[in-house]
Design brief:
Layout: H1 3-26, H2 31-49, H3 59-66, H4 70-77, H5 85-103, E1 117-118, H6 126-134, H7 139-148, E2 152-155, E3 159-162, H8 173-195, H9 217-243
Antiparallel strand pairs: 1-3, 2-3
């Protein structure tokens, strides 16, 4: 790598990893643990994505690419993958239930707003909602999770009302870590796609920011950002649901892909 490129990439890495290190230290994760996870990821990416076409990726080649010893590469390849898929699935399904409740007219009242639903029973019920948008996840498990994050409330013993427009795992640290991994991972993958020549059309990646804003402007901009972004996301959610085979089995086509648009707000004190 050219010296100038290495310097620029190093500066970008420091900027990118600093908030991550802050999260790790706040949660008692040592450098040793972080180092082990990073080494595992280097080996996994080198094995999966940097092989020679038509040839099986060897331990020796992975060692050369990563700079690790053959013994260390072999040890890391024998470790189980450190992922927790159950949390990701719970998050996705709970979010789909709320989105479906807001979007699907079968679960709306005469004013076009999400209805207060019977938990079970004839007609449009919460059980029907869960079955339609969350597959085989138990109805009680979904209800308990939405109650826990205060996304819904019980009316009596057998009816439930929607309180929020989206699923926010307020006090579930594990779910927040899932969001950290997926959202940051998608953002970096998008930037990686756009940096590689010959990778097809670039993915949309934009931001707007100014660096001389007074404190008094921030609350107004936060509110404007939240309202505008939520309106856009709900519009995109409606389109995606019509073209997703889980929520619309009539959709035909080949392959299975993940696609979406993510929006985030940021602010910090400006440093010269």
């Amino acid at each position: 790598m050219k010296p100038n490129n290495l310097q620029a990439l190093s500066a970008a890495l420091i900027r990118m990893v600093r908030p991550l290190v802050r999260i790790l230290l706040r949660n008692g994760v040592s450098y040793g643990t972080f180092s082990d996870l990073t080494k595992w990821m280097f080996v996994d990416v080198a094995k999966q994505e940097f092989g020679i076409k038509g040839r099986k990726q060897s331990i020796s080649r992975v060692a050369v690419i990563t700079g690790l010893s053959r013994k260390e590469v072999k040890r890391l390849l024998e470790l189980p993958e450190p992922r927790k898929r159950a949390d990701e699935e719970t998050y996705n399904r709970a979010a789909r239930v709320i989105a479906g409740w807001r979007r699907d007219r079968d679960f709306h009242d005469r004013q076009g707003k999400p209805s207060v639903l019977d938990i079970k029973g004839p007609g449009a019920s919460f059980a029907d909602l869960v079955k339609r948008f969350s597959g085989d996840l138990p109805v009680r498990a979904v209800l308990d999770e939405l109650l826990r994050v205060r996304a819904v409330e019980l009316i009596g013993d057998d009816r439930v009302r929607l309180l929020t427009r989206l699923y926010l795992p307020r006090d579930n640290e594990i779910m927040k870590y899932h969001i950290l991994g997926t959202d940051v991972g998608y953002l970096i993958a998008t930037i990686d796609h756009n940096m590689q020549a010959g990778n097809g059309a670039p993915f949309f990646q934009r931001k707007v920011s100014y660096n001389n804003l007074p404190d008094e402007a921030l609350p107004k901009f936060r509110k404007l950002s939240e309202e505008s972004a939520q309106a856009l996301l709900e519009k995109l959610d409606s389109w995606l649901s019509k073209n997703d085979r889980d929520t619309n089995p009539a959709v035909e086509g080949t392959g299975r892909n993940v696609a979406g648009t993510a929006i985030y707000y940021f602010e910090e004190i400006f440093e010269e």
